[in-house]
Amino acid sequence: MDLKGKRALVTGGSRGIGRAIVEALAESSADVAIVYYSRKDKAEELQARVQRRGVRAFTLQGDVSSWESAKSLVDRAIEVLGGIDILINSAGINGTKTTLPEISEREWYRVISTNLSGSFFTSKAAEAQLRANKGKIVNLSSIAAKMGGTLGSHYAASKGGISSMTFAMATELAPDVMVNAIAPGPVDTDLIAPEVKEKLGALTPFNRIARAEEIAHTAIYLLENDFVTGEIIDVNAGRYKD
Ligand SMILES: NC(=O)c1ccc[n+]([C@@H]2O[C@H](COP(=O)([O-])OP(=O)(O)OC[C@H]3O[C@@H](n4cnc5c(N)ncnc54)[C@H](OP(=O)(O)O)[C@@H]3O)[C@@H](O)[C@H]2O)c1
User: Rounded to the nearest 10 degrees, how much is the dihedral formed by the CA atoms of 216, 218, 224, 225?
Assistant: First the structure.
């Protein structure tokens, strides 16, 4: 896919990995709808920055964990961009607690609803549009899907679900829509507490955690390539191999 002039909806676009993907898309001359949840300031600052590259950029507020809100986000993106060709599902949270005794029912559903249901809802809402435009979906799984990780069983389960959902959607939507996921190890964003970044970095053969731009680079590869679908790309500097 030539990204020039393509129209992308990026959930989680205001910060972290989603933000880096928005910048990479704009660098490739794609137009973007940047979804934020509460950080309007961050989304608008990014909007102004990418507009200076000459692309069209819009900000949209919404909560992907609600079907109505996710549907509305997709509808508004189609309206402002005139259609969408690309859906990036990067909105995600970690829980406030990580152990079984601490994870309440409410906390379980909060993490699952945002990370897993959110990616399902936006994909479901965008299906017809993406099929019509021979579009692409890139989801954000995690090393936690295979290894468990350190953020708790709710977070790991949400990411395992995203990997499984990616396989299922890739089969169901082929050959119209290509669906892939990226499974990063720890990335230097707000999702990772500052005090553990060095410790997590020491676990990788490269002795550092990833930069968001390195994940965005993988997203651009998945979008530009026209013969890869149903794949989960590990990006973790060799910390985990099959
Ligand atoms: N960082 C890592 O180490 C790492 C590793 C593997 C996978 N991942 C995955 O990569 C994705 C992006 O993570 P990140 O590190 O970029 O996180 P981040 O820096 O904390 O950014 C999270 C983004 O999600 C948005 N968001 C949160 N809840 C939302 C909701 N209910 N509805 C809509 N948007 C919502 C936030 O919006 P606001 O700015 O408005 O709050 C923000 O844009 C997540 O799915 C995460 O699980 C991250």
Answer: -170
